[in-house]
Amino acid sequence: MVRNFFIGGNWKMNGSLAEAKKLVEMLNGFEVPANTEVVVAPPALYIDRVHQGLKKEIKVAAQNAYLKASGAYTGEISPQMLKDMGLEWVVLGHSERREYFHESDELVGKKTAFALEAGLSVIACIGEKLEEREANITNDVVARQMKAIAAEIKDWTNVVVAYEPVWAIGTGKVASPEQAQDVHQFLREWLAENVSAKAAEETRILYGGSVNGGNCKTLGAKPDIDGFLVGGASLKPEFGEIILSRQ
Ligand SMILES: O=C[C@H](O)COP(=O)(O)O
Questions:
Q1: Position in ligand 1 atom list of the atom nearest CA 96
Q2: Is 76 known to be catalytic?
Q3: CB 229 near ligand 1, within 6 Å
């Protein structure tokens, strides 16, 4: 089975309404190649404008969602509300949420299950910190993060895994294609052993961390890299080069 290439653009907490409109114009000008899926995640406040403005083949994700449908949870947005606004995707477990907002593996697993039940597709982020890589426990860390998700869900059809080594995020220190491929291969084997052969074969595994127009081709050529979750470069015209990198 062919896994469609997936390009995610995570705008994080960047920009303004004027800049969001410019990015929409820029994105609408890109030709999305066949067999490539493009999903962008604007800051929550701009999601609806971006969604209204974008051409239909580019999808919109939220950068987070809570694990309740509604109630007294000040500041939170539910998966049901995202669905209500016509969204299809949510990013969960980003390392910035894990680090700054203390989201645990267990919480990320539960949020993933809840978002899937609400009918969203999930970009589930995992990845090791620098000290964990230096201690040679990268595979243990990502396995632990995957296990917490697998404990809550059975069907991985609507999950895309984003492997983002924390030391590579926003630092310009991209993982080498070999380093990334090693972890992606490990993750695919982990899915085969712990979920199913189908999940291993069909689940897209993205790489994220300092992806740019210059390194996307060699990273994307690796057999287990099925796309990217792009931060900084998704705010620039070079995002177009990344979208076209598999042509
Ligand atoms: O979600 C995206 C990642 O955190 C990567 O960010 P970056 O491309 O700016 O390193």
A1: 4
A2: no
A3: yes
Instruction: Please name which of 100, 94, 62, 98 lies closest in space to residue 78, comparing C-alpha atoms.
Output: 62
The rounded mean pLDDT for the chain is 97
Residue whose CA is closest, atom 6 of ligand 1? Answer: 231
Q: Is 45 left (phi over 0), alpha (psi -120 to 50) or beta?
A: alpha
How many residues make up the chain in this entry? 247
CA–CA dist 235, 35 (Å, integer): 23
Per-residue model confidence as pLDDT tens digits over 53-83? 999 999 999 999 999 999 999 999 999 999 9
C-beta separation of 46 from 17 below 8 A: yes
Catalytically annotated residue among 37, 94, 96, 128: 94
pTM above 0.80, yes or no: yes
Decide whether any atom of ligand 1 lies within 6 Å of the 169 Cβ.
yes
